[in-house]
Amino acid sequence: VEVPVGTKDEYGKVTQAFNDMMLRLREAEKIRRKLVADVAHELRTPLSIMQLKLENYQQAGQHIPPEMLLRIHDEVIRISLLVDDLHVLSLAEAGQLSLYRKPIDMTVHLERIVDDIKYEAEENGLKVHLSVCAKPVIVLADARRTTQVFINLLTNAIRYTPRGGEITVKVEDQVIDQNKFYVRVSVVDTGIGIPEEHLPYLFDRFYRVDKARSRHTGGTGLGLSIVHQLVKAHGGFIRVESCINKGTKFSVYLPSGNERGEDREDREGN
Ligand code: ADP
After folding, report:
1. What is the ipTM of this complex?
2. Is the pLDDT of residue 216 over 80?
3. Which residue, by CA, sits nearest to atom 21 of ligand 1?
């Protein structure tokens, strides 16, 4: 049997495709290794601290005081949240996160969320404003997941805004971007801001602008990557603008409920 001999050009193309594939595989392997290392590090630190504290009491033959138990309990909760966040992230990244979409009026939805978070903001000396449309603003979305998106953004706004600051949530309908209609929800704070050079990495897992500060404020470094993935799963996207010592604005774009085609397809998939 005579095997057709490829031209030099064809060999070149095959070799190129093979090299590209190897490069992508190597890249994926690098990302996987970094993730495992990051997760190990994130879990190792609080676990080591707890282990050390418990061993100190054990060696001294002392009972653990109730305040210490409370602190250890808080750490355990933080680790559980981290594991939950990682689970959601890995599902979303693999495209396996199930969304239970229903028509949601974003105005009512955000009124509830802002109401829930207001107390925490006030405790931190911050005012929260909500600016909404008079008409219902409908999005076909998963209520639980979108709540998670806005709670994460609002928690960050609270964390990174000094006392006396303000947080504004704005809901807008029929925002056009590249010929598509979106509902835009922006979360604006008057906080510490984010240096421009950090903005491209902000949605990466475990990325923190100021490591010491974030750890101190109790963040896991996964909040924004989850926000990004959840918004993406809804067919939307997110933008960020920031100015140091002036504040930050996150804008979430979700496909408008009036744009039927894509949403219906997605709903049937779930
Ligand atoms: P974390 O759990 O550390 O808050 P996130 O993924 O939610 O992690 O955020 C990543 C980093 O982005 C934070 O560590 C912080 O440095 C920065 N950041 C997020 N939101 C804001 C904000 N509203 N103002 C200033 N910096 C922010």
Report:
1. 0.97
2. no
3. 156
